[in-house]
Amino acid sequence: MSTSTNWQKSSFSGGNGENCIEVGQEAGHIVLRESDDPGLVITTSPAKLAAFIQGVKAGEFDHFVS
């Protein structure tokens, strides 16, 4: 993982950043991490992340947060 990754988090993550999943891009891959455990990074492709986001928007994962 590069130290120059520009991490971005959602504006819905809370004022203190306590509910943050951060996302960045490195060498054409998407990287994800939790702000309270920045050493644990998940790497995926833009296409896989796009498919996941489409599922989120469609409500396919709502049962995990209700």
Characterise this structure:
18% of the residues lie in helices and 33% in strands. It is of the alpha+beta class. Strands 1-2-3-4 form a 4-stranded antiparallel beta sheet.
**pLDDT averaged residue by residue:** 89
Bulk shape:
globular
- Residue share in helix: 10-25%
- Determine the number of helices (DSSP H or I, runs of at least 4 residues): 1
Largest sheet strand order: 1-2-3-4
Distance between the termini: 33 Å
List key phrases describing it.
about 70 residues; alpha+beta; four-stranded antiparallel sheet; 1 helix; about 20% helix; about 35% strand
SSE inventory with pairings:
Layout: E1 8-9, E2 21-26, E3 29-34, E4 37-44, H1 46-57
Antiparallel strand pairs: 1-2, 2-3, 3-4
Quick structural overview:
By secondary structure, the protein is an alpha+beta fold. 18% of the residues lie in helices and 33% in strands.
